[in-house]
Amino acid sequence: MKRIFAVAFAIIITLSFAGCGQEAVTSSPLDEGQLEDCYVSIENCKVSKDLDGKDIVIFYFKYQNTSNETTSFSLSTFITAFQDGAELDVAYYSDDDIQNSFKDVRPNTELHVAAAFNLTNLESMVEVDVKNPMTLNSDNDTVLTKSFELKDLVC
Known about the structure:
By secondary structure, this protein is an alpha+beta fold. It has helices spanning 2-19, 73-76, 96-100, and strands at 32-34, 38-49, 55-65, 78-83, 86-87, 110-118, 126-131, 144-148.
């Protein structure tokens, strides 16, 4: 039912762009949407350093538990990040939003969360994907994705 709503919403948005005389961008990936039991928006990212001084990227998300059960962002989603086509390793870093990723969230509650990854360089674009962990091998799985240019984030 939720997937039907998401598809219907996407069609309505596409038609509304067409009605305004603008071309609808249908091939661009979704950076927010309904996964199985949650709604996630990929907000932004920042470059920082881990405790060892290595360069990391921290992605920030808005997470809403849309299920009928208490759950967490870390159990409701599967996050991967890529740079130069290769998956990045998870970084060990702590801030409030990263800690929120592991907190239980009651139904219909929204929380700002984050995930950190080790960078291989400070020049190449990074990409983050958000998936439902229960349907990782499904061809019909919703994948949220967003790309960021690091050169815009690094001084």
